[in-house]
Amino acid sequence: MKIVAPAGNMERFYAAVKAGAQEIYMGLKGFGARRNAENFTLAEYKEALDYAHKRGVKIFLTLNTIMMEKEMDFLYENLKVLYEHGLDAVIVQDLGYFRYMKENFPDMEYHGSTQMTVGNHIEAEYLRKIGFKRVVLPREMTFEEIKKIRENTSIELEIFVSGALCICYSGNCYMSSFIGSRSGNRGMCAQPCRKEYTDSKGNKGYFLSPKDQLLGYDEIQKLKKIGIESIKIEGRMKDPNYVFETVEYYYQMITEKKIEERVSKIFNRGYSKGYFHGADSSLINKNYSYNLGREIGSIFGKELKLKDRVVLGDGIIYLSKDFEKLGGGYLNKIEVKGSKEVRKTAEFGETIFLKDAPRGSKYVFRSFAKEVNDDIESKLKKYDQKLNITGKFLGDFGKKPLLILEAINNHGKKIKVEKFGENEIEAAAKRAVTAEEIIEKLKETGDTSFNITNIDCRISEGIFLPVSVIKSLRRSASMELEELIIESYRRKAENKYQLPYEEDMEREVILSAIVSNTAQEKAVKEYGIEKIYKRGYDIAREEMLNEQDIGSKLAANLYQLIENKNNDVTINWNLNISNRYTIEELAKLRKAETVILSPEISFEKIKEIGKTSLKKAILGYSKLKGMYVEISLFNKNKEIIENSEGDRFTVVQNIMGNSEIFFERPLNILNDMSKMKKLHIDEIVIEFTIETPEEVGEVLNNMRLRTGIYRAFNYERGVY
Question: Can you spell out the DSSP letters for 274-334?
Fold first, then answer.
C-alpha cells in the first residue's frame, strides 16, 4: 500500500519524497481543485518529475475540476509537454476532459477524483471499463463500504486517511459558487463551511466546520488487509513540516510500526476518524474552524495546569471561554509551581506560571511545538528516498574491470548501464583487494538517488585495484543510469484529437419541473406542466443502493443513470456538465436523452457548447442546493442558518438522514423566457425543493405574469 502525498510547492514536494511518499499529487499554476495553493510552473513541474523518477516516485497532475472546452484546448500544449516528459497520471473530475485527454495522451494513467463522488462498485466499474486506472473514493465511505467496493471491482482504490474534511460531498458543494462565484468545482472555494453561522434560536457557531481526519494504526491495517492500493493525505496548502510528519507517520504504520502521533502537534483544529466507523454531528467542531494547535490546559488566574509537556520556544495562544483569540507568544521562561530551579521543560500534570496571560483567558493552546518541529527540520536535512538498484562487478586479471548497474522504472522497464575501467587489471605486488572491499565501496552511493541492494562481485584472486578506480566506475555508472532512467519516461504525443464543432441553432423550448413531493407535483400538474421529474438523492452510497430509484427519468448520480430502466433519462445538474465532451461521453451509455447543464456556468458558456447528440436543458428556477451532507447537522427536520453577510439557508434532513442545504433566495430567470431560445437549449426546468404548494403556485403565477424577482446567479456573472 502506497502513500499519496500533497505538494503545493517545491519545498513541500521535497519534504514528501524525503518522508517516504511513493506518489505525489501536484497542481499546475491556475488549474486544479486547489488553485489557491502556490502550485508549480511548467519548468518546476518538469524538474520535479525528473527528481521523482530517479527515486522511483510517481507524480499525479491534479486537473480535478469541471472544464470548459476552450480551457481544454488552452491546456493542451502544457499537458503535451508534461506527457512527453513522463507524467505518470492525471487526477480528473470532468468525464469529458478525461475522454479528451485519453484520446490525446493514451499512454498515461487517469484517476477519478473524489470530486466525481463515486460511492459504489457499479460506478467504480464503469470508470474502469472506460479507461480509468484508479478512483479516489469519497471521504464519507465507511470501512464496510470500502471493503464491499474492493470486493466487487478491480479498479485501483485510493482512500483519504488524513487532513481536512469537506462537510459536503466533494463535487456536490455549490455554496461558495452561488454565494460569490468562487466555485469549489473550479478550485476556487472560499470555504463557507469554515464561517460562523447563526441558527433560528440566535445561537452562533461553526455549524458546518468538521474536524480534520486522522486515521490510526488499526484503520491503516484494515485498509492494507483488504488490498487498498494507496492511502491519501490532504494538505497541498499545509507547510513542509506538516507534510513530512504526516507522510512519515503513515509510512511507519504501513510497515506495521506503531509510533507516536505528532501530526496534531503541528496543525490542529480538532481531529476525528471521519466517516471510517460511521459518523454523526460529533464530527463538527462548533467552537472554532481554524488551526489553534493542541490544548495544553485551562488557565486560572496566572496558573496553568499542563495537559501536555512544554519546552522553551513553544508557541502558545490564549483563548477566551468562547475560543476568541486574546493573544499569544513564545515560552521564553518556564516557572514551575513548587520549584525554584530554572527549567527548560515542564511535564504533564505540573503547574506553570504565565504572567503575561491576558485578562479573560480560559484556554491555552500550543500553536508551535518546538521539539517536534526541530526534530522534523533535522530529519529533512538527513533523510532522502532512494531507488533500489542491483549491481554486478567483474574483475578478471588482465581485463578491464566492468561494473553493471540495473534499475527498474515505474512502468516495469529494465534499465542497464555497463561501465568499463580504463586500464587492465594487474596482479597485486603486496596486498590484494577482496570482493568484500569492492562491494563496500560500490555501496557508498552518497548523494546519488540510488541504494544498491545487492552486488554480484566476481574477481580473480590476487589482483590489485585502486579505490579511486572503484569510485570512478561507481560515479560514472550512477550518473549514466540516472540519465537513462529519466529518459525511459519520455514519450511522444500523437496527432491532436478534437470533437468536430458544429454551431447549434434556435428552437422551441419546452417547460418541465422537478418536484420533491406529491403536493408539489399536484400544483405543477394543475398549472399544466406535463413533463415532471421526481427529485432523488445525489449520492449513491454502496450500502444505500436500494434507495435509488432506477425507474426514475431523472438521474442524480452515475449509478442511477448506468442502472436506469429507461432510455430517455434526463441527467440532473449536479453531475456538473459544462462541455460537449462530457455530454457525448454520457451519451455512450444510451440511457440519456437530455442533460441539465450546470448552473455554475454562464449564459455565454452555455451558448458556446454547440450542437450535441443529447438535448440540453437549464434551470429556470430553483432554491439552489448549496450542499449535500452525509450526516444530520442539527438532528431535526429543518433549521434556518444565516451567515455574517445576511445570506440565509434552510437545512433539511432527508429520509436517509442526510442534510441538504438550500439557498433562501432562489435562482429565477423565468421572466425572460424569450431569451432562452438564443441559448440553443431544448428545455427549461423549474426545480422545486422545499417550497410549499402555495409557494409553488406563486412561482408559477409569477412566471405567467412575469412578476417574479429576477436572479440569474452565475448565469450572468460567470464563475471563477
Answer: TTTT---GGGB--S--S---EEEEEEETTEEE-SS-EETT-EEEEE-TT--EEEEEE---B
On whether the CB atoms of residues 512 and 617 are closer than 8 A, the answer is yes
Residue 433 and residue 413 in contact, taking contact as beta carbons nearer than 8 Å: no
pTM assigned to the model:
0.95
Q: Could you tell me how many residues make up the chain?
A: 720
**Which three-class secondary structure state does DSSP give residue 337?**
coil
Reduced to 3 states (helix: H, G, I; strand: E, B; else coil), residue 128 is: helix
Residue with cell 486517511: 161
pLDDT of residue 550: 97
> Any bridge partners for residue 352, and if so which?
304, 336
Grid coordinates given for 319: 483563548
DSSP 670: G
CA 435/CA 391 separation, integer angstroms: 13
* Residues 395, 423 contacting (CB under 8 angstroms): no
CB count in 10 Å sphere of residue 384: 14
Distance CA 540, CA 546 (A): 9
To the nearest 10 degrees (0 to 180), the angle between helices 580-587 and 95-104 is: 90
Judge contact between 452 and 390, C-beta under 8 A: yes
- For residues 273 and 291, what is the distance between their CA atoms, to the nearest angstrom? 18
Q: Is 420 helix (H, G, I), strand (E, B) or coil?
A: strand
Cβ–Cβ under 8 Å, residues 17 and 240: no
> Phi, psi (5° rounding) for residue 80?
-60, -45
And the C-alpha cell for 340? Answer: 525554584
3-state secondary structure of 89: strand
> Given the DSSP bridges, would you call strands 615-622 and 667-668 parallel, antiparallel or unpaired?
antiparallel
d(CA 94, CA 108): 17
Write out the DSSP string of 229-240.
-EEEE--TTS-H
In the block, residue with C-alpha cell 461558495 = 176
pLDDT tens sequence across 493-529: 999 999 999 999 999 999 999 999 999 999 999 999 9
Specify the pLDDT at position 36: 58
Burial class for 458, CB neighbours closer than 10 Å (0-12, 13-18, 19+): exposed
Enclosing H/E stretch for 212: strand 212-214
Q: Which residues contact 631 (CB under 8 A, 6 or more apart)?
A: 279, 280, 281, 283, 657, 658, 659
Q: How far apart are CA 607 and CA 620, in angstroms?
A: 16
State the sign of the Cα–Cα–Cα–Cα dihedral 47, 49, 54, 59.
positive
Radius of gyration (Cα) for the chain, nearest Å? 30
Residues of the chain predicted below pLDDT 70: 31-38
What's the CA gap between 461 and 483, in Å, rounded?
34
Spell out the long-range contacts of 556-565 with Cβ–Cβ below 8 A and sequence spacing 24 or more: 557/117, 557/119, 557/123, 558/116, 558/118, 558/122, 558/123, 558/126, 559/119, 559/120, 559/122, 559/123, 560/536, 561/586, 561/589, 561/591, 561/592, 562/122, 562/123, 562/126, 562/589, 562/591, 563/122, 564/591
pLDDT reported for residue 33: 46
Answer yes or no: are the C-beta atoms of 559 and 548 closer than 8 Å: yes
Q: In what helix (H) or strand (E) does residue 271 lie, and over which residues does it extend?
A: strand 271-272
